[in-house]
Amino acid sequence: MSSWEAIDDRSYLDSISVTVVEAVHHNDEKLDWRLTVEDSSGKQFELEIWNKHNPLTEWVEGAEYVIREGYGQTWDNGRKKKLHSSDKWGADRVDSTPDCRLMVMGDSHVGRKKHPSKPHQSIDCAGKFEQAIEVAIAHDADSILHTGDVFHDYATEEDCNTVDAAFQRMQDAGIDFYYILGNHECDRGTRLLKRWERQGVATHLDMEGSDITDDLKVYGYDHRPGSKFSVEEMDVPTLLMSSVSILVLHQTLVPFRSGADVDLDEINSKPFGGFDYVVSGHLHDPERPNWDDGEFLYAGSTEDISTNTDASDPSVWFLTVESGAVDTLRRKL
């Protein structure tokens, strides 16, 4: 592990362990955090984290972190130095180990070749799926939750080869992939997912639930058209035994969309105490609206396929579960 001495001007530092002495959250368009940190030798210096590098970490004073691939800056003949976040950096807190880290992604639409409202805009849905998986690996995700529409209505052999390679990366990294079916999908893609189920990497979620850890259980329900959606037919469990329970859907939902056909409050009234967290696909913009019954987010798409003129950037989400609590952070792709 490197120290302050190893910071060189305009060079990447492989890794360094630091303790945060002071953390100032700027949260403006450019600078997200400015930290004063201390290395293992007791040397203090500044670490600046820029919003363009999509920071995930909430910085806690007194906590210890490992910084990877920070970008060095020196002046005054090397007597003064600082580190910056970079386009390939990573940071992990090492004095606290979460029970589980989930990455939530959705609406990958692998196979789609044209933007729905901008036909001249280039999109690469398979490539973005692969990129999202690399983000999960880089941030040490234990499992991935996919909120549906992994595939579009048709996928080429090349598309499937890209997804296959991503699943191989997940298998090598020990990451499990939990998914539901959306309103698209295709036969070739579904066969691919079933093949990875047989290899123990993918799991098709249902309302019986899947145990991620002893204290975390995830449930899922495939997309139904609103006119055919029945809460009674969902067979929602009346008792949720895990400390944290998450429901994965692919629907447009009331109360977040007034004209929607599916009422999330009605679903959540079935189990005693309700689900702790609900994540949904189907909308292509990432959102995290307030919900009186618990935590909720629309995952959004991993590629820019929203038809909204003010669409948010393609994203994934990280849910860090620790001692029955869930911390949520969004990461742009």
From TrEMBL:
One annotated GO molecular function: hydrolase activity
Domain annotation Calcineurin-like phosphoesterase: ranges: 101-286
Pfam families reported in the protein's UniProt record: Metallophos (PF00149)
InterPro entries, per the entry: Calcineurin-like_PHP, DNA_Repair-Maintenance_Comp, Metallo-depent_PP-like
SUPFAM superfamilies: Metallo-dependent phosphatases
Domain of life: Archaea
Protein name (record): Calcineurin-like phosphoesterase
